[in-house]
Amino acid sequence: MEGLDIPGWYNLKNTTSSAISDQYNSKRRLIGAFGQAELGFKNYLFLNLSARNDWSSTLPKGKNSYFYGGANISMIVTELLPSLKENNIDFLKVRAAVGQTGSDADVFKTVGWYNPVGQAYQTYNYTNLPLNGVSGLTENTTKPSTDLRPEMTTEYEFGVSGNFFKNRLSIDFAYYNKNTKDQIISANLGPETGYMFQTKNVGKIQNKGIELAVGVTPVRTKDWDWNVGITYTMNRSKVKELWEGLTSYTYTNWRGVQYVLEIGKAIGQFYTPDVKTVTDKNSPYYGYSIVNNNGFLQAASTSSSKGTSEAKFLMGFNTTLKYKNFTFSAAADWRFGGVMVSNTSYITHFDGNSTETLFNERYSFIYPHSVKTLSDGSFVENNIMVKSSQMNYAQGNYSYNPLIRDAFLVSKSYFKLRELALYYNFPQSILSHIGFIQNATLGIVGRNLLLFTPRKNNYIDPETTNLGNDLLSEFGETTGTSSTRNFGVNVKVVF
To answer: What gap in Å lies between CA 379 and CA 401, rounded to an integer?
Structure first.
């Protein structure tokens, strides 16, 4: 509905324009054949095999069949060598696995399709339809990909897990190496082709890392039981191949911040323009920043990576303390490393509400170590002051100040108190008087209670993203809503 007289009230009586309807239907078919076999030998050696073949309607006709499978083997060492249990090794298992996973594309990626052109499209067309009562269609802006291949991921994993000291210490460690070939993405096309996008297969992307989980029981008595758990995850990604000889590809571009896939580097490099500086090493102002006639820093023709969306590591902490019928539990998460684009940062810079716009207490200032250009091309020390009346404009208008693009990038690091909970399990001495209730638990739960972020990010919860679930979700957020703190009561009754 367009032309609302009162904003936000979607009622036919609130507009003089006619109602606009929109309808979208799609169908897809996926047929799969699956087989699995499990073999065991003397309760200590196990082998699992699986295989699957899929036929998908979203891949090119005649090329829509793809096969994948896997195998994993595990050995329970304490069953093979029972004497280990006499040395405080209660359980020990080693494992290795190799597997493949295939996936198809979304609908309408291999064939063209058309949209009916109506009033909703009039803003974007020179000729408005219907024309003289005749309707029309326009082709979708995504170019069909007739040679699209299924995305295939191959992963190798090695691990060991064990319990020690009468199950008061548990350790689970895994190393993995995962390679994704022919990853399906939507690539930009030049408008002169008649399209804006084309679905393509990206060459090869690698993810490898480690996962570690440790559990400890420091206290275990008749009335008390205390457990502590820690998890650690480290992943390192690398773009190994692209397509058609490309060494880098800009996945998306937002207000001068580019999200780039680059061979040899981690997935998702953020590139922003550099500040224009004096490059003549013989000049006394070598390395100084160059400002324009308004005193704003100028952007250079070069850009550099200001970080990646990938975390250095992730850690999780949890503890459970039990005393008789009471149970107290807590969980926290720590992410270190990685950056993201924040539209919330941009908006608050633009309207002057961000921390950076308080520079010099909003009094006039001169950028330090900067020069201005004279008419003959020479440089002199800058004396152009950015006035307080220009502050919001200077800080908010990214087209003038290249440094402001860096301010759009905020850290994804955080420490979050995920949950606190206190439960009471009613004893059988009370429930026996009721008869039909076998178990009852009453709990008070608080979630998302505390969030600590680096000083540069006082805008948004780094876990907040509203850009989907694919690679674009790692790019950042576009004016997302704030995360909320929740409190609740949990009642569980078993009859």
So the answer is: 19
